[in-house]
Specification:
With 460 residues, this protein is α/β, with parallel strands linked by helices. It folds into 2 domains: 2-107 and 260-458, Aminopeptidase; 109-243, Aminopeptidase i, Domain 2 (Roll), CATH 2.30.250.10. It has 11 helices and 22 strands. It has helices spanning 2-8, 21-40, 44-57, 189-192, 214-227, 262-277, 307-318, 323-328, 380-393, 414-418, 443-458; strands at 61-62, 74-79, 83-88, 98-104, 109-120, 123-131, 144-151, 157-162, 200-203, 237-243, 248-250, 256-259, 284-290, 331-335, 338-339, 361-364, 368-369, 397-399, 409-410, 423-428, 430-432, 439-442. Strands 1-2-3-13-4-14-20-16-18 form a 9-stranded mixed beta sheet, with helices on both faces. Strands 8-7-10-5-6-9 form a 6-stranded antiparallel beta sheet. A hairpin with a 3-residue loop joins strand 2 (74-79) and strand 3. It is globular and about 80 Å long. The structure holds manganese (II) ion (MN) (2 copies). One manganese (II) ion is lined by residues 104, 263-264, 293, 336-337, 412.
Length: 460
C-alpha cells in the first residue's frame, strides 16, 4: 500500500528537505544582494536607476533603433525612467519566439497631492493620495521617507530623497490615542482611518516674523534651501512617501526577509539576476520591469503601453521577423508575488491550493476574482511545460491560488501579455502581509524564483 500511495498521491515537500547545503549557501548570498537592492529601490524610478547600473556592469548597452543584434548581445531600453526592458539575444531567430519574464517595480505608497502643503493650528502637513491597494490604518504611526522628482517649469528635474540616509529627518502620520478613540474604535477597519486623513506632518516651528502661515513659510524655506523649489513646483512633482523601514532578516533562524516593496521588487530582482546569469541562451531572453501594475497597468509606463511592443518590433525588425510570429511562439513568466498561507488567518485560505513559505516559487495557473474574472488562465499545456522545466532544473516550486473562492482576488500583468498572443503563466514569491508597509517573504522562495526564471531563460 505504501508503494501504491507513493505512486499515486501528490505530496509536497518543504524546500529545506530538498535543497543541498551548497544551495542553502547560494540562497543566503542571493538574498543578501536582494536586500541591498530593495533598500536602495524605494520607487519605480530608483529601481530603474539601480537596474540600469547593475546591467551596465554586466555589459548591457542601451538599445538604439537600427542597431545590429547578434547572438549574445545584451541591450536595455528605459521607458521614461519608470520602466525597463532588457534583452539578451539568443542563438535562434526571434521567429522562434522569445522567453519573457515580466515583473513590476511599483509598490503601494502614499503619493503627495499636487497642492500638498498646508498649515493648520501652527503645524504644517503634506496631503496625500494613496497609490495601489492599501489598508489605510497600517500607514499611520510608522516612519516615512520622501522620494521622487520635482520637475521645474523650465523642465529641469530635481531629485528628492529625504529620510533614507541615517541622520536625515523622517515623517509620520499621527493616530488618535486609545484614551480618546472611543468613537474611532467603533468604526470598521476601512473607515477608522480615511484617505483624506492620511496627512503627513512636516513641521512645527514658525518663521521668525509676523503674519499668517508662519510654519508653512518656514518649512517651504527649508525645501527652498535644499532643492531650490517653491510651492508652485509641487504642481509638476511626483513625490511619494514610503515606509522608512530597512529590509532585514526576520526570525531567530534568519530564514525570512521583512521589507517594504517585496511586491514586486522581489520578482524584479530575481529576473534581473537571472538575465545577468544566463549563458549563451538559445532563445532571446527578455526581462521586463514594468510600472503601474498596482493601478491596473494602464498608462505609458504600464504593461498595457505600446512601449513593450515597440521594443519587440524593433528587435524583430533587426532580424526581419514579423513580431506577431515572434509573439505566438513566445513564452512569458509573469513574475509577481502571490499570497502565502498565513496560519494566523486560516479562514480566508484553502490550504491545499495556497502557497506556503519555503515550498518554493509559487505557480498560479490563474488569478482573478469570483469566477476567474480578470485572468488569462494559463493552459494545461503551459503548466505541463513548467513542470518539466522546473523538475529538470531542480527548481523547488508549488501551485498557488490566491485565497478561498469568492474571498477576494487579484491580478498581475499576465493577462496583458497573454492578450498579445503570448503563452503566459503567473509565477512568483509567496508573501505574507502583502501591500503592508512591511511585507514578509521566505529566503528559500526568493532564491527559487531566481532559479525558476533562470531555468526558463536557459531552456533550449
Ligand atoms: Mn504584484
Ligand atoms: Mn500588488
Amino acid at each position: 500500500m505504501d508503494e501504491l500511495r507513493k505512486q499515486l498521491f501528490y505530496e509536497q515537500k518543504n524546500g529545506y528537505d530538498l535543497i543541498s547545503a551548497d544551495e542553502h549557501v547560494a540562497a543566503e548570498e542571493y538574498c543578501r544582494s536582494y536586500i541591498d537592492f530593495l533598500n536602495d529601490s524605494r520607487t519605480e524610478r530608483e529601481a530603474v536607476i539601480n537596474a540600469i547600473r547593475l546591467a551596465r556592469e554586466q555589459g548591457f548597452v542601451e538599445y538604439q533603433p537600427g542597431m545590429a543584434l547578434t547572438p549574445g548581445m545584451k541591450v536595455y531600453s528605459c521607458n521614461r525612467g519608470k520602466a525597463l526592458m532588457l534583452a539578451v539575444i539568443g542563438k535562434r531567430s526571434l521567429a522562434d519566439g522569445v522567453v519573457i519574464a515580466g515583473a513590476h517595480i511599483d509598490s503601494p505608497r502614499l503619493d503627495l497631492k499636487q497642492i500638498p502643503v498646508y498649515e493648520t493650528d501652527e503645524l504644517c502637513y503634506f496631503r496625500t493620495h494613496y497609490y495601489g491597494g492599501i489598508k489605510k490604518y497600517q500607514w499611520v504611526t510608522i516612519p516615512l521617507e520622501l522620494h521622487g522628482v520635482v520637475v521645474l517649469k523650465n523642465g529641469e528635474v530635481v531629485d528628492v530623497r529625504i529620510g533614507r540616509e541615517p541622520g536625515e529627518p523622517r515623517f509620520v502620520i499621527t493616530d488618535l490615542l486609545p484614551h480618546l478613540a472611543k468613537d474611532q474604535m467603533k468604526k470598521t477597519m476601512s473607515e477608522g482611518i480615511s484617505g483624506e486623513s492620511l496627512n503627513i506632518i512636516i513641521g512645527s516651528v514658525p518663521y521668525a516674523d509676523e503674519g499668517k502661515d508662519r510654519v508653512k513659510l518656514a518649512v517651504l524655506s527649508v525645501l527652498n534651501d535644499m532643492y531650490g523649489i517653491a510651492e508652485e513646483d509641487f504642481l509638476s512633482a511626483e513625490l511619494t512617501a514610503v515606509p522608512a523601514f530597512d529590509a532585514c532578516e526576520i526570525g531567530l533562524d534568519r530564514s525570512m526577509i521583512g521589507g517594504y516593496g517585496h511586491d514586486d521588487r522581489v520578482c524584479a530582482y530575481a529576473e534581473l539576476k537571472a538575465i545577468f546569469d544566463v549563458k549563451d541562451p538559445v532563445r532571446t531572453c527578455v526581462c521586463i520591469l514594468a510600472d503601474k501594475e498596482e493601478t491596473g497597468s494602464d498608462g505609458v509606463s504600464g504593461m498595457q503601453s505600446r512601449a513593450f511592443d515597440t521594443f519587440m518590433e524593433d528587435l524583430c525588425a533587426a532580424q526581419n521577423v514579423d513580431v506577431r510570429r515572434c509573439f505566438e511562439k513566445s513564452f512569458c513568466l509573469s513574475a509577481d508575488v502571490t499570497a502565502a498561507f498565513d496560519p494566523l488567518y486560516p479562514d480566508v485560505s484553502e490550504k491545499r491550493s495556497e502557497a506556503k513559505f519555503n515550498y518554493g516559487m509559487g505557480i498560479s495557473k490563474f488569478t482573478g476574482a469570483r469566477g476567474k474574472s480578470g485572468t488569462s488562465d494559463a493552459s494545461a499545456e503551459v503548466v505541463a511545460y513548467l513542470r518539466r522545466l522546473f523538475d529538470k532544473a531542480g527548481v523547488v516550486w508549488q501551485m498557488a491560488e490566491l485565497g478561498k473562492v469568492d474571498q477576494g482576488g487579484g491580478g498581475t500583468i499576465a493577462m496583458f501579455m497573454a492578450n498579445r498572443n503570448i503563452d503566459t503563466i503567473d509565477a512568483g514569491v509567496p508573501v505574507m502581509s502583502m501591500h503592508a508597509p512591511f511585507e514578509l517573504v521566505a529566503k528559500l522562495d526568493c532564491y527559487m524564483t531566481y532559479k525558476g526564471v533562470l531555468a526558463a531563460y536557459s531552456d533550449d
